[in-house]
Fold this protein.
Amino acid sequence: MTKKQIIEEIQSKDQTIGAFLSLDQDVREADPGQSAGRLADLAMAIKDNIAVKDHPLTCASKMLKDHRAGYDATVIERLRQAGAWFVGKTNMDEFAMGGSTENSAFQKTKNPKDLSCVPGGSSGGSAAAVAGGMVSASLGSDTGGSIRQPAAYCGIVGLKPTYGRVSRYGLVAFASSFDQIGPMTTTLEECESIFSVIAGEDQRDPTCMGKAYSVQTPLKDFSQLKVGFLSDLSGVAPDVAKAYQAFCQELSDAGAKLEEIEFVLPQEAVSVYYVLSSAEASSNLGRFDGIRYGMRGQGETVEAVMRDSRGRGFGLEVKRRVLFGTHVLSAGYQDQVYKKAQRYRAMLRAKMKDLFAIYDLLLMPTTPTPAFEFGAHNDDPMAMYLEDAFTVPASLTGIPAISIPYGKSQQGLPIGMQVMASHGKEETIFSVLKGLEEKFGVFGRRDSDV
Amino acid sequence: MYEVVIGLEIHVELKTKSKLFCTCSTDFGAEPNSQVCPICLGMPGTLPQVNQEAVQLAIRAGGVFGCTIQPLSQFSRKNYMYPDLPKAYQITQYQEPICTDGGIEVLREGKKTMIRLERIHMEEDPGKLMHPDYEHFSLADYNRSGIPLIEIVTKPDLRSPEEAVSFLKALRTQLEFADISDCRMEQGSMRCDANISLREPGNQVLGTKVEIKNINSFKEVQKALEKEIKRQSDLLRFGEGDKIVQETRKWDAGKGRTVPMRSKEDAEDYRYFDDPDLPALILTQGQIQAAQEGIPSETALERRQRFMEEYDLSESEAVTLTEDAVLARLMDQAAGKASSPRKVANWILTEGLRLYRSGQGFRVNARALLALLKEIESGALSHSAAKQVFEYIWEQQGTVADAIETLGLKQMSDSSQLETLVAKIVADNPQAVAEIKSGNGKAFGFLMGAVMKETKGKANPKVAKELIEAELKK
């Protein structure tokens, strides 16, 4: 098939799903069969907050509706070099703020596994493009769970790398101290091979000092592996709890030592995450003023133009977080709220460090429930925020975490399991999970998954 | 009389090739928006990368003023929305600046007094807005966006406008001498804000301070401070001290007064926080030492003293020469090899200064100046011819020999050539000859002038004088 034919096929498949905001209609690169590299001819979907030169870069916001990227993100450059090409840009919650992709200013994306349900978010389009069989791999971005949660909801693999292991250059910033780009794929193997291409130091991102990654061999001997798991599963849906117990059992059967950890799942972790990420967002989104690019509002004075641009260009959730973030950074509140949240973050990091002094891996469900129906949390942002309870700890502490598909709910919705390791230990995650695949079958393709 | 208390905040552009967080050029005066890239335009997805050259110059500045260089400093975001600021925040250093403490000495009533520094921190410059007359739009130029600056903040140690100006001049010279900045106030590469308050003499408590912004030259520093002192002391004198409020006032150079800009209550909340895109700036002892290599150890005051003693200059001459690094350097280079440093100083301070004020640098170097002096001493060039040579070199950048050749200033020392001419002039001016003979010395000057005029200044004055005297005796 030519690239043009591939795109046409995606377009027709996407009519029921709505995963893509734009498809590359005038493919410039050579057709498949002519490129070399680790990812030769791999067709990838890219979340619409990652810069691909000359492609739209909308962040699913009216603000950037007609904006195109003038340069390639570092990850895009590396993927290109490895032979991959980019079919188009995927839908998302506006500026990556949300957990259902319902906050997109342009369209809904449906969960390919159940069209009445959301695909999760914010990387919902990237998850749905893979789950809907349009591409085998995509890139998402994860700030508080935005790769892992939609991967879980759609039954695919999604990795949030260690903070600083993948360059953020070219990712439109939401919360700079949290954001990471990561692969979302059908299989674990492909996830690993994409990660091996995008990981590693980048001069253009001073926070990226990470080491490169090379593909691991599957772990054979699990006897030295120490794994921590949660004893307290309150608030977790019964189907998810059941899958979690089965997953723990699987590791134990493989020979790993499992121990219960006292990790009281911290409601306040979610609050701390929202304080810090919104604070950073309020500053990061200041540049969208309609003056240099993006939606140009109207008005007699420059201030009026900026007000109008932002008033009409941003959606409700974005405004909510910018206002909240501005508030917690303001004089008089910064010490009480923002700095307090930072101290909590430091404390949580220390606590994680202690845990990883003992354990090689920690296991948690990715989300408390499987995918929910459209509109379920419309009137209650707090309920939506609490869906992040299991994903924010890795985001606050910067450790790597992967979500793999593991079983189904009674209604037939996919369930995701989350595996976390210490900073820079993606190697452990992949070698252990590949070891489990050798013993028990490929994740997402077992009888229990379909 | 009230005691005046002044503190200064000085922004200085660092002399780097590229901007603070990207590789765009810092050249002044380029076509608007020709020195920009996605980073300094704040395009979505871009990230800053710290320019190590700028860090080195900031450390160097700290070294020049005896500051403590902090092994760990942090960049912060100062958030505010304005069209000249593409990211809607300025990357600066807030709670953890790169340099702290230090100071600069000035003379107060003849005594050396240390003006202490609070801190020096690094930050990026915003772009520039232009508001064309009679148009309903403004234009934005982002060439300046991201140019590296240091902000030098003093403690409230200055006591008069004159002292503030001499402090600024000493600061500028030292920065120029250490190759840290060009410090051109007229190009905006050096800018100054002043905090000023008044108090009863002997009172230890500081009065209410007013910040003055938008001061664009040394002269205006003096004027703006004088005006503000007058405004505040008038209010205090008439018992209206409560009308002095903590506020920011803008210096209006055209109207010659300060006008209110914003009060303390209206002060913007910049919501500073550590920039998550930039890890802490960590410096090793090795880096700090390397950056401070070759810093001149002499302070501005020491240099002034040395010029007076070594070169036999008056205080005011020494001040003029040492307040400007270009002049001071030239003086040092030329004076060492000159038979008379005084003469070097004379040429720099008269002809040189006159042309230098046009603002294109000092266009005669030490070698040319020395060559010129040699020609004068040997009697080969008259003073007026030497002036022409000096101007020629300034304009054309040639050598002294070139200038003499091109200007046709080779002196006529050859007596036989001059003899005929002198004889003719004496014969043509019987009245002058009569006057000289009756004792009027002035008339001799008239004859000399006539010889010079005829030879277009090329006649060797000594030879001409001898010839006229001989002719008169005939």
